[in-house]
Alpha/beta fold putative hydrolase EstX
Amino acid sequence: MEAKVVTDNNISLYTESFGNPAHEPIILIMGAMSSAVWWPDDFCARLAAMNCYVIRYDHRDTGKSTSYEPGEAPYSVEELADDVVRVIDGYGLEAAHLVGMSLGGFLSQLVALKYPQRVKSLTLIASERLAETDPEIPPISPALIEYHQQAATLDWSDRDAVVEYQVGAWRINSGTAHAFDAERIRQIAQANFDRTPNILTTFNHTTLGGGEEWLGRLNEITASTLIIHGTEDPVLPYAHGLALKAAIANSELLTLQGTGHELHSEDWQVILQAVKRQTSESKPGGAP
């Protein structure tokens, strides 16, 4: 793994790469409030071993990238998507394959619409559409909302308390297909805490607006698109995956039976093989 800091217009993005730069470039884009470590090292290494050049990065307000005072984020969700292109530019790439999870998938859609020639393909994991809210699609599980209400009284300077809180959140996110690996999640949560100077800055992601002009335009996406969604996702229920499939022309849907809103190690083999196929067969801008 090699670290690199990409800078542009007073924005600093901390990135890490795995593999050979001569191989197909893949940018991994994690979800809201999450630094790059939530793409585990061994996941990245296994993908790199499949002749891929893998790059992960910390969003603004997470990890070692630029952060702002809690509640004072001076950027929009669209500008957070622009950071993906900053990473592509920072590595001297003309285009890259984007693999986004949750908010990362939402940002990937924005990039594909705004910068189509910079995107070789899309893989959207546990993501929702860049579209107006559909009342017909099931909402987030009430159990998650109830659990996260305790965030208001948590001592966010207490490393152990924050880590255990995050372990509990991921436990609720998990499906029934695989046993919940609390120790793996705990180790990642510890690394995430240690990597982020003030963990409260991550809540800036919950306040972001913007991107309205791109809503309802998924039919304009030309990049080859793979959708991966678990049938027991409590954050973005499986109906979101089906809606993405219906909205993006010629997209493919890989269903993970019994998987929740998670990147479980027992799903990696299926996910990695699918990503490898997706990034081997696609061209910039969706060209044949």
